[in-house]
Amino acid sequence: MKRITTTALYLLLLGVAGSAFPVWAEEARCESFAALERTQGQVRVSEEASPFPQRISSFPYLLCPGDKVQTVSQAQAHISHPGGDLVMAENSLLTVNSIEEVELETGAALFHIAQREGARFVANTPLVVIGVKGTRFLVSANDERNDVALFEGGVEVERQDGQEMAYYRAKDISEMTFDEYRRHQNQAFRDFQAAFNQAFNDYKDQVMAEFEAFKRGIDLEPGRQLTLGSDGEQAEAVDAPVDAAFDTLQQQLGSWLR
Questions:
Q1: Closest to 152 measured CA to CA, from 75, 222, 212
Q2: What share of the chain is helix, strand, coil (3-state, %, to 5)?
Q3: Long-range contacts of 95-99, Cβ-Cβ distance < 8 Å, separation of 24 or more
Q4: Rounded distance, CA 244 to CA 188, Å?
Q5: Buried b / exposed e along 89-106 (16+ C-beta atoms within 10 A)
Q6: Residue 126, preceding bond cis, omega within 30 degrees?
Q7: 161-187 pLDDT per residue, tens
Q8: Domains recognised in the chain with CATH numbers
Q9: Where is the signal peptide (predicted)?
Q10: Would the pLDDT of 2 be above 80?
Q11: Of 198, 228, 226, which Cα lies nearest the Cα of 127?
Q12: How would residue 194 be classed by pLDDT, with cut points 50, 70 and 90?
């Protein structure tokens, strides 16, 4: 009987049960520019070339163009990107499109984007395009409405279809009467999901927004929230003080960016 050397035995085991050993020299899937840095709860990644999502247990996990990151209930995910960082809330789906662009397909995410000379970063939803100028903002998207709440810096918001919007503006807190301020404060008792799922026209009535003009692009100011929807066929946008529920969510997600 031939003797099997230690080296031969190791190679034999590696060939038979290779999947049980770590593959240190695995070839990178792409020239990655983004990474999944941290998760909480169930978070899955669907690679562009695969229909099957996978749970990630080792970090950072490099993301390629076309990869989708999905969170379920009570889950969060932190993604780093050359433009900055973002934290996805629960029940959200986001696609990493390119070094300059991501798309939040549904749910909510907080973005903290650094200002870079000569560089442009774009955050999309199925409805809106958000041009970023170095900022901290929260985006939410569902079938009824899309919201962009700005906390620092500046963003410009347009519709994906380029359609002109009827622009409504609600009063600043300093401009409200006592009764109007009391109505505004009542929003603080809602949680994010209640605010997120509120019908667009109900929200427009609640914030007492008044029509100002038709606009194709809107520059949002810090402390304001732009809510996009429609009244029948007419595209509309409501500019109002940041909803208390959205502010609470940005504080929760922002704790991962400190």
A1: 222
A2: 20, 45, 35
A3: 95/66, 95/67, 95/68, 95/69, 96/34, 96/63, 96/64, 96/65, 96/66, 96/67, 96/68, 96/69, 97/65, 97/66, 97/124, 98/65, 99/33
A4: 5
A5: bbbbbbbbeeeebbbbee
A6: no
A7: 999 999 999 887 777 777 777 776 666
A8: 28-254 (2.60.120.1440)
A9: 1-25
A10: no
A11: 228
A12: confident
For the record, the structure tokens of 190 come out as 């809602």
Pair 18, 50: CB distance under 8 Å: no
Amino acid at residue number 103: E
Q: Are 217 and 235 in contact (CB under 8 A)?
A: no
Residue type, 118: G
Closest by CA to 203, choosing from 164, 165, 240, 255, is 240
Q: Across residues 28-50, what is the average pLDDT? A: 89
User: SS3 for 236?
Assistant: strand
Please choose, from the candidates 92, 106, 89, the residue with its C-alpha nearest in 3D space to the C-alpha of residue 252: 89
